[in-house]
């Protein structure tokens, strides 16, 4: 490793590699403490050539466009339901993919612009270059035009996130797209095969079906690995009722383009088969962009399996180099996690604070057609940690009031509260499937952080009629064997 530059001879106090949510949060916080900050951001084109502006995955090809397309799908469903409520909706109701993509991309571009303005206002220098380490205090930014700029900094933050992984089978990179491409796809995707059943795969399949396109999900083993199995089974059942098809226990072996322009996908598994699709979307996980940084030049160590950085309080094995977000080994790959960690890190480095990032009890939501929100432990994790004899699981099906008039399916609206059995029955996890699940679970996440017990839930008067109030009414345990299905909206 090259010798460290003496203190006081750096170009910047903080150099941030990666212009996503976590890196920008840390950069802006550090700037507010009077530090000189530079942000490097560069998007390597996808296999299809897709690129985007500053803001990272969430803004450009993740949370934001995903939520907007999910909303578009829900609106289509609501249009049809409106007839039941007396609205005269003329037939036929049609949808235009190109219009949606244009609206989504216009919003993203506006966020890109606001981000650039914020950096300028905070006097944070922005460099559109791909950063690679030269040593522990030096990064070389490689520009699109081939020029290079050598930048030194006292502290360096790695916040480069990750990109979708491509599985290894013939035709994958040639003919398949990823979530990097879907949200700006210029033409309608048509009949789509989604390979992978994590949250990205299920969310994309869900909104594509809601927008009127056939959607099939190919699953190697299980859906939503790491989530509560009761809840996952209900998510799958609801998606199947909505018309999403599932190919369980299948692995793609080849994709080829046919004379008619369709993609022929061949697969192996308990039963080999094949099918034709208009679009094939691979969503089998993400790869951290750590190796692209030339980390060995700075002496950085990477976890041999995940390819991510092992950190203590976001500090890598090199004292002046830190990391936040999806490049951290064993941490949640969630935008708000990266933002919070980045802000707190800047406070510790430059404002004398001591507060550490708390990675426990982080809430999240799967924006499937019927959403699934959760915080805390799954039932399986609680049993593994405490044993089945020491936990209590309260559960209930419920009937959203707004589902009655259009006679929507309520059989998958379900919630679960996992507690310790011993008084005061500390709440270990909360899980909710239903409309607006993210909005429902967010408040309970704060309550769990504050030490929520089951008695607190019982003592809370719910707002009626809402779906969130169902958590204040739950009282049937799995252990009892009683039927958790309500008899009426007020039972």
TrEMBL record:
Cross-referenced Pfam families: Pyr_redox_2 (PF07992), Pyr_redox_dim (PF02852)
GO CC terms in record: cytosol; mitochondrion
Reactions the enzyme catalyzes: [thioredoxin]-dithiol + NADP(+) = [thioredoxin]-disulfide + NADPH + H(+)
One term of GO molecular function: glutathione-disulfide reductase (NADPH) activity
Domain of life of the native organism: Eukaryota
Cofactor note: Binds 1 FAD per subunit.
Active site (record annotation): 464
Positions of FAD binding: 67, 131, 326
Enzyme Commission number(s) of this protein: 1.8.1.9
Gene3D superfamilies: 3.30.390.30, FAD/NAD(P)-binding domain (3.50.50.60)
Boundaries of every Pyridine nucleotide-disulphide oxidoreductase dimerisation domain copy: 362-472
Residue ranges constituting the FAD/NAD(P)-binding domain according to the UniProt record: 12-342
This protein's UniProt keywords: Disulfide bond, FAD, Flavoprotein, NAD, NADP, Nucleotide-binding, Oxidoreductase, Redox-active center
Residues bound to NAD(+): 196-203, 285
Cysteine-cysteine disulfides: 58-63
Gene Ontology terms: biological process: cell redox homeostasis; cellular response to oxidative stress; glutathione metabolic process
Family designation: Belongs to the class-I pyridine nucleotide-disulfide oxidoreductase family.
NCBIfam families linked: TGR
The protein, known as: thioredoxin-disulfide reductase (NADPH)
Organism: Aphis gossypii (Cotton aphid)
Origin organism lineage: Eukaryota, Metazoa, Ecdysozoa, Arthropoda, Hexapoda
């Amino acid at each position: 490793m090259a010798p460290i530059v003496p203190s006081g001879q750096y170009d910047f106090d903080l150099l941030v590699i990666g212009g996503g949510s976590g890196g920008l949060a840390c950069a802006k916080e550090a700037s507010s403490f009077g530090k000189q900050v530079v942000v490097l951001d560069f998007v390597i084109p996808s296999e299809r050539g897709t690129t985007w502006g500053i803001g990272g995955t969430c803004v450009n090809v993740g949370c934001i466009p995903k939520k907007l397309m999910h909303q578009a799908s829900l609106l289509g469903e609501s249009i049809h339901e409106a007839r039941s409520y007396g609205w005269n909706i003329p037939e036929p109701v049609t949808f235009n993919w190109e219009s949606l993509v244009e609206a989504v991309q216009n919003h993203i571009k506006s966020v890109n612009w606001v981000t650039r303005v914020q950096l300028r206002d905070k006097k944070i220098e922005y460099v559109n270059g791909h950063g690679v380490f030269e040593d522990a205090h030096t990064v070389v930014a490689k520009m699109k035009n081939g020029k290079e700029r050598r930048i030194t900094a006292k502290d360096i933050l790695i916040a480069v996130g990750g990109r979708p992984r491509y599985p290894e089978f013939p035709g994958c990179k040639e003919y398949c797209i990823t979530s990097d491409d879907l949200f700006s796809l210029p033409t309608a995707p048509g009949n789509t095969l989604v390979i992978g059943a994590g949250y990205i795969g299920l969310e994309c399949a869900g909104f594509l079906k809601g927008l009127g396109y056939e959607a099939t999900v190919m699953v190697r083993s299980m859906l939503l690995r790491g989530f509560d199995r009761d809840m996952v089974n209900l998510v799958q059942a609801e998606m199947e009722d909505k018309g999403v098809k599932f190919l369980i226990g299948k692995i793609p072996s080849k994709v080829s383009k046919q004379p008619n322009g369709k993609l022929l996908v061949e697969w192996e598994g308990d039963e080999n088969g094949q099918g034709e699709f208009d679009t094939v979307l691979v969503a089998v996980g993400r790869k951290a962009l750590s190796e692209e940084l030339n980390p060995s030049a700075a002496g950085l160590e990477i976890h041999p399996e995940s390819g991510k950085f092992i950190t203590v309080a976001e500090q890598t094995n090199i004292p002046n180099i830190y990391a936040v977000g999806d490049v951290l080994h064993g941490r949640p790959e969630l935008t708000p996690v990266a933002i919070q960690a980045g802000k707190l890190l800047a406070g510790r480095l430059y404002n004398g604070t001591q507060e550490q990032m708390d990675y426990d009890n982080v809430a999240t939501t799967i924006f499937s057609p019927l959403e699934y929100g959760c915080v805390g432990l799954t039932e399986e994790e609680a049993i593994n940690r405490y044993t089945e004899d020491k936990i209590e699981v309260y559960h209930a099906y419920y009937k959203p009031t707004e589902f009655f008039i259009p006679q929507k399916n309520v059989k998958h609206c379900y919630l679960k509260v996992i507690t310790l059995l011993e008084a005061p029955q500390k709440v270990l996890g909360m899980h909710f499937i239903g409309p607006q699940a993210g909005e429902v679970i967010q408040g309970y996440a704060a309550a769990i952080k504050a030490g929520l017990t089951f008695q607190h839930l019982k003592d809370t008067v719910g707002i009626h009629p809402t779906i969130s109030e169902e958590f204040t009414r739950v009282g049937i345990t799995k252990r009892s064997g009683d039927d958790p299905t309500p008899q009426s909206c007020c039972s």
